[in-house]
């Protein structure tokens, strides 16, 4: 199956789960805290606002390959029929672009590149 041909919102759906799992593992091992505190910390990494800001920084640093930029753009430009919660549509779309590339890398079994991106996301958010 050609992963590039999947609907970009399907890639974003997968990418959301990948990022959420990675962040949860990271904060559980780092904080060893109660679930409520873990949830509060996790929001710093997985909120649409955070993902949008992270994508902007990665794009400004030319972090992505041309192929990856295409996936990000498809994810960002996809027409979603769900409403963005607690954010504007532009922020929501950018976060969908970041999630789409995460989903693509995961489903295409590009584990090394996926790990690089996930580590970069954690580092960027930690520096804020």
Describe the structure.
With 128 residues, the chain is mostly helical. Helices cover 76% and strands 0% of the residues. It contains six helices and no strands. The longest helix is centred in the N-terminal third of the chain and has 24 residues, at 8-31. The radius of gyration is 14 Å and the shape is globular. Its main location: cytoplasm. Homodimer.
What's the Cα radius of gyration?
14 Å
Strand count, sense and barrel status of the largest sheet are: none
The counted number of beta strands is 0
The average pLDDT is 90
Distance between the termini: 39 Å
Order of helices and strands: HHHHHH
Count of helical stretches: 6
Question: What is the SS-derived class?
Answer: mainly alpha
Question: Strand fraction band?
Answer: under 5%
Shape: globular
Helix proportion range:
over 70%
Low-confidence stretches: none
Active site: 16
Subcellular location: Cytoplasm
Enzyme class: hydrolase
Keywords: Cytoplasm, Endonuclease, Hydrolase, Magnesium, Nuclease, Ribosome biogenesis, RNA-binding, rRNA processing, rRNA-binding
Summarize the helices and strands and which ones pair or pack:
Elements: H1 8-31, H2 35-46, H3 48-60, H4 66-77, H5 89-107, H6 111-127
Helix pairs in contact: 1-2, 1-4, 1-5, 2-3, 3-5, 4-5
GO molecular function, one term: ribonuclease III activity
Domain RNase III: 10-109
Function: Involved in correct processing of both the 5' and 3' ends of 23S rRNA precursor. Processes 30S rRNA precursor transcript even in absence of ribonuclease 3 (Rnc); Rnc processes 30S rRNA into smaller rRNA precursors.
């Amino acid at each position: 199956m050609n992963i590039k041909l999947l609907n970009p919102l399907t890639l974003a759906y997968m990418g959301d789960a990948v990022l959420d799992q990675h962040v949860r593992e990271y904060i559980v091992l780092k904080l060893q805290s109660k679930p409520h505190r873990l949830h509060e910390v996790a929001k710093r990494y997985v909120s649409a606002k955070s993902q949008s800001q992270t994508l902007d920084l990665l794009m400004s640093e030319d972090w992505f390959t041309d192929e990856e930029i295409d996936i990000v753009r498809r994810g960002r430009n996809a027409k979603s029929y769900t409403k963005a919660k607690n954010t504007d549509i532009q922020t929501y779309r950018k976060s969908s672009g970041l999630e789409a590339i995460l989903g693509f890398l995961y489903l295409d079994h590009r584990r090394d590149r996926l790990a690089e991106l996930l580590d970069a996301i954690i580092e960027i958010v930690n520096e804020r």
